Amino acid sequence: MLLVIATLYYPGGSQIDKTSIGYDWKNNYISNLFSEKAVNGSDNASRFWAISGMMFLSVSFAIFFIDFSKRIPAKGAAKVVKYCGAGAMLFTFLIATPLHDKMITIASTMTLVSIFYITVFVFKSRLQVFKFLCVICLLVFYCSLYLFYSGVYLKVLPILQKFTFASTIILILGLEYFTKKEDFEPIKTSKDATNR
Description:
mainly alpha; 7 helices; 0% strand
């Protein structure tokens, strides 16, 4: 919500029109909210709200990765989710600083590793909806990073960036509130029962 509030205070300017007024959801990046100056050169009144929002988002996600790791039955994988996920959130917060581009590389790599590990265990479960959400989240995330690093189709990157945030938030909220440790225990088959 703080990031949404930040968009209301953004003075203006985007990648398409440097003189535009206000935040354009189609053409402004989320990172535009963190700069001292807006793209149009005005003092950026959205900065306080955006940095606060990124701080709360990062802390919330870190808590999720630490908590969710306890649901994963394999200790090694649980540690990867816990430490990569929580560590990624430190670097995610630092995206709001002048180290933006370097932090995107580190934070994205660590976040994707954590989500990939979670996806493996979701696919071993019976959580059909979450299998779909995991795949969508990973695909959107990878596409967004491809556009960012390749420099192609930059006009659509601000939109894809918002889809990346939305799909990740939906996945994390869903996993946090609609799954439990028992969902990730090894599925017992009729063959297992016969062997006993």
